[in-house]
Amino acid sequence: MQKTLFLAATLALSAVFSAGASPSRSPARTVQVRPYKGPVYSIFFHPLISEPREAFAVSSKQVFMDEWFVTVSEFKKVLASLYQRGFVLVSPRQFYVKEADGRWEKKDVLLPVGKKPLILSEDDVNYYKTMRTHGVISRLWVDPEGRLAGILTLPDGTSKVVYDNEVPQVLERFISVHPDFSLDGARGIIGETGYYGAFGYPDVANPKAFDHDNQVYQATKVAQKLRQMGWEFASHSYDHETAVREPDAQFEAAEKLWMKEIGPIVGPTPYYIFPFGELWNEDRTRMNFLNSLGFSYYFGVDRRASVGYADGSILLGRVAVDGRSLRLGAPSLRIFMDTKKILDPDRASLKYR
Known about the structure:
Distance between the termini: 62 Å
Helix content: 25-40%
CATH superfamily of the largest domain: Glycoside hydrolase/deacetylase
Order of helices and strands: HEEHHHEHEEEEHEEEHEHEHHEHEEEEHH
Low-confidence stretches: 1-16, 18-26
CATH architecture of the largest domain: Alpha-Beta Barrel
Structural class: alpha/beta
Number of strands: 17
Number of helices: 13
Shape: globular
Number of domains: 2
CATH class of the largest domain: Alpha Beta
């Protein structure tokens, strides 16, 4: 009986991991699978630097851009390393399920032998002014052909449409070549704040703006496209403030704004990414309020794939992949990559350090 189940699971996973493969590729091979018992890994990025020379040019934001962002070329090398090391993209909901009695259960998901599950997330996909004036795209856009595009504002004030300059675009191209890098179509989680709109449309947060309705429409099209591609969404708080700087009453009012302004664009979500990686799990007032809004999966920042539980919620640690961790060769990244092989030459040549 066990052998029969194993064979059925093997054939099923073979279909899952070969789906989307091009007819020109070699025939799908049989994939041996086992219930996965190990840790579920998690990493996160910020929006990618499209123009390194602009991001790393001498300015008041040079250090900021160097420390917290990775370039397009670095992200591509990270993906290649993750794939070579046996990681496969998954959704938290595939592994962690809340039962009717409130208990959380970790599922023994079937994975190909040698594969390790990885949750990928991208924070602050709002394209704040600091980003868009220092080498990051200014917004996402769905073009007339239905493709996910980015709008890159150049130093001379002109703009161009780009298709390979942000995490979802680069990842989609990678998966088209390596479909077994995704389990059941999983992509990642996009964290949206609210005070600067969504996806590069700041007037989403300004109902009185003359372009408000159009920006809501464009942002909603982007969210629909991303969801169609397999992405999920998370609240990254409305104001992106620390608990110390935002008292409870102000915080609750702001989070209600997120539900009102951003919620209808991205749709209902159980995911909440703490700003600055702060862990609020011991603040019962704040956590009870967030739970009342429908959140139950919470993400912080950690040096490993940590998992914790608190009053009906699950707390998942994420490892940061950014300029600082790459430069320092952070031990937390060793399982994922050799950081020396990832660094962009434009970053490595910076002289201020």
